[in-house]
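Exercise 7.
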Amino acid sequence: MVCAVSTEPEHDADPPIAEAIGEPGDAFVASLMDTDLYSMGAFFCDQHPDLVDEVVERSAEIERSGLSAYATEGEMDVEEAFGMLLTGLSVRYYKAVAG
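Solution. The predicted structure, written as tokens, is:
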């Protein structure tokens, strides 16, 4: 059995976000939007707008006290505290980039 390998570059039907935006500097900002952290923050803000302030506040508390200390104080697993920290960071990242 023979497999043919194309040497021609693949072309997407839609241009990347950076190419769709025309002003200088917008390509960099657009590249910031093309991350998992941005997508997570956008999803959370869209699905849970009423919890955005709370998750940002709690993630700031985790940053101040430390992951293990926050988990112990809140009587939760470190994994659960880490998830909250990551969610808060992604929401802050999304809000900073999206404005």
